[in-house]
Design brief:
It is built from three helices and eight strands. The longest helix is centred in the first third of the chain and has 21 residues.
């Protein structure tokens, strides 16, 4: 009887894993989000899951402070681009008109995160957003990424 239970358990675990992977039918990279980019109010808000941080969200698990800069904002945004370019598995997707979008993939499974920055020259700051395309938890990866950029920018 115990052998049968073990087989059933293995099959149940395998079925659960396959169904979870099926939810990511586009592969581990996920689908490029339609809600990325800037809106009239800045970067888009985070979805209702903890695998995202955004300076547009002022509190809770998603909130993160915008990046401050002194001097020319375009120079600061260019420095952020250079910082991102040095990060492993990072690809610059779009960089124009005060907006920067990059993707970064995880080393083991290749899951893709979208990282965005939007220049706000009137307030001498750069809005930031980093969000996983798939999955619920990110174990703080997106927050650490933005804080790393902030640290290197300063």
């Amino acid at each position: 009887m115990a052998i049968l239970d073990l087989r059933v358990t293995k099959w149940a675990v395998a079925a659960l894993m396959i169904s979870c992977l099926g939810a990511c039918a586009s592969g581990p990279g996920g689908v490029r989000p339609v809600n990325k980019g800037s809106s009239q109010m800045g970067l888009t808000s985070c979805p209702p899951r903890p695998s995202c941080v955004s300076s547009r969200d002022t509190g809770g698990i998603h909130g993160i402070a915008p990046l401050k800069f002194q001097g020319d904002g375009a120079v600061a945004l260019q420095r952020i681009r250079e910082i991102l370019a040095r990060m492993p598995r990072t690809k610059i997707i779009d960089a124009n008109d005060g907006y920067l979008h990059a993707t970064q993939s995880s080393s083991v499974f290749g899951f893709t995160d979208d990282v965005e920055f939007l220049l706000d020259p009137e307030n001498a700051q750069i809005q930031a957003r980093s969000c996983a395309r798939v999955g619920f938890f990110d174990f703080g990866v997106n927050r650490r990424r933005i804080e790393q950029v902030r640290s290197e920018l300063n």
